[in-house]
Specification:
Number of strands: 20
Helix content: 25-40%
CATH architecture of the largest domain: 3-Layer(bba) Sandwich
Oligomer: single chain
CATH superfamily of the largest domain: FAD/NAD(P)-binding domain
């Protein structure tokens, strides 16, 4: 008999969105957070940059809104952007009340930085480890509040109407939008047990999917779990073609990819070719402060034009004391690799960084599945459009986590404690075959990097889709026949997310923002033409 755990609110993920949402939801009932590694293994902890917000007297909401809309390549939802910008500052102040130590200038005021695409200094930061500081503060507050956090727990599938034992929908009979979420099947990696969590509301806060690409800035846990869970349950997945490549990851073959924060370019860093010449003037009048999609394509173009393995980011014209004070983590990491960045130029290449599409939600975080919410990088709220504006992501996590809590607190989000089918999956532990399946992990990532990267074409996308569908079929066959373990869950999700990215990219017949195809002209005219993918929930 499968063990059943009841809670009011199940949150899957322990980054800024999950922790902040848990704090606010704890006023309305019991909150249970599950996270598949340790609680700090989240994209939030790796965020070097900061949080964008209108906090200076010289700044305006309208300026931040326009910067976001321009960066989003004509695809942002204006209502969602206005909500993000106007409600954001209050939540940044809330973090400060909780104890977040953001950098201050000599007068004691916030030391606001500027990053690509922003027309004003509006980025709050904590040196070059802002995400780690935010995670520290929120985790301390959650523990003080007594919120239950369970580590090494992986969501296998969401529980929907199809999984009920009483009055269950017949297979293939559930129309889109008529489904409900009752919680999730969860795999306990410590006991190898799969158990049921039933909840009034389930919130996906699982972050991104950077591991779908060979070169990325994300932690190992970023395997697109939330998007895969939601898609299998029947939710709408939107704009997956818009995967943001951070322009400046440290080029260090043989070492794990390391991000060089956008704040460096905001502080005056210059992009140069191997010959030492700056090149951004050829691509955009905003130079190094152009939006990320433009800068990443410029670096990619220069590498292809010259055959160089990387470009340089140069801060050697800045005082050493200033560099060490503002970017101590980057300084120390580069020094460990023999690069003294106050004297040596930093070799950089683009790397996959942020999923700007995801599970489609409204401005209250609701998906098309009743009682299922999504927030943060896993969600597509419409605020990022075709290209995320720098430092809007942590802001998005705060604002829309709060809106979910407000919606739940002011409405009658309730589910009957329905009977749920026990987990029936059995399988064998075939170690020899498992070794072969593990190779699929790197093959997926290589295909995505080679064919679905910064510059695409229909031919490349068609080739990628054929390969990933074949790999996905092999992985799903192995999943059905073997015992559950975390790696096969991640691999199953990764293959599905890769397929969704390729299908979305193939469906967009234009170049826009982060999706640049050699087959179609660039278009930045305002549009709400999202690419939407959805499956029938009963075919899980």
């Amino acid at each position: 008999m499968t063990r059943v755990v009841d809670t009011d609110f199940l949150i899957i993920g322990s980054g800024i969105s999950g922790l902040y949402g848990a704090l606010l939801l704890s006023e309305f009932g019991r909150v249970m957070i599950i996270t598949k590694e340790e609680v700090t293994d989240a994209n939030t902890s790796y965020a070097q940059g900061g949080i964008a917000g209108v906090l200076a007297a010289s700044d305006t909401f309208e300026s931040h809104i326009q910067d976001t809309l321009i960066s989003g390549a004509g695809l942002c939802d204006p209502e969602a952007v206005r909500i993000l910008v106007t409600e954001g500052p209050a939540h940044i102040r809330k973090l400060m009340e909780l104890g977040a130590a953001f950098d201050q200038d000599d007068t004691g005021e916030l030391d606001l930085g500027r990053e690509g695409g922003h027309s004003e200094n509006r980025i709050v930061h904590s040196k070059d480890l802002t995400g780690k500081e935010v995670e520290r503060v929120l985790l301390a507050a959650a523990r003080e509040r007594g919120i239950e956090i369970y580590e090494h727990q992986s969501a296998v599938d969401l529980i929907t109407c199809y999984h009920l034992t009483e009055n269950a929908y017949e297979p293939h009979s559930t129309p889109p939008g008529a489904n409900q979420c009752f919680g999730a099947y969860v795999y306990d990696r410590k006991t190898w047990e799969i158990y049921i969590v039933r909840a009034r509301a389930t919130i996906l806060a699982t972050g991104g999917a950077g591991q779908v690409y060979m070169h990325n800035t994300n932690p190992d846990v970023a395997t697109g779990d939330g998007v895969a869970l939601a898609y299998r349950a029947g939710a709408v997945i939107s704009n997956m073609e818009f995967y943001q490549f951070h322009p400046t990851a440290l080029y260090s073959p043989g070492y794990k990819t390391f991000l060089i924060t956008e704040a460096m370019r905001g502080d005056g860093a210059i992009l140069r070719g191997l010959d030492g010449d700056p090149f951004m003037k050829k691509y955009d009048e905003r130079l190094e402060l152009a939006p990320r999609d433009i800068v990443a394509r410029a670096i990619d173009a220069e590498m292809k034009r010259t055959g160089a393995p990387h470009m340089y980011l140069d801060v050697t014209h800045l005082p050493r004391e200033h560099i060490m004070a503002k970017f101590p983590n980057i300084y120390a990491h580069c020094l460990d690799l023999g690069i003294e960045i106050s004297k040596d130029r930093i070799p950089v290449v683009p790397a996959a960084h942020h999923m700007s599409g995801g599970v489609r939600t409204d401005v209250d975080g609701r998906t098309c599945i009743e009682n299922l919410f999504a927030v943060g990088e896993v969600a597509c709220t419409g605020v990022h459009g075709g290209n995320r504006l720098a430092s809007n992501s942590l802001l998005e996590g705060l604002v829309f986590a709060a809106r979910i809590a407000e919606f739940i607190g002011s409405s009658s989000v309730e589910t009957t404690r329905r009977g749920v089918k026990s987990w029936q999956k059995d399988g064998l532990n075939n170690a020899e075959e498992w070794v072969l399946v593990q190779h699929n992990f790197n093959e997926i990532r290589s295909v995505m990097w080679d064919y679905v990267g910064i510059v695409r074409s229909d031919l490349r996308l068609d080739r990628a889709l054929r390969r990933i569908e074949m790999l996905s079929s092999e992985i799903n066959d192995f999943y059905r026949r073997t015992v559950i373990q975390n790696k096969i869950l991640e691999l199953r999700n990764l293959a599905l997310v890769g397929k969704l990215i390729v299908r979305s990219a193939r469906a967009r017949k234009e170049s826009r923002g982060l999706h640049f195809s050699t087959d179609y002209a660039e278009n930045r005219e305002p549009s709400l033409a999202y690419t939407n993918l959805q499956r029938n929930a009963s075919s899980t």
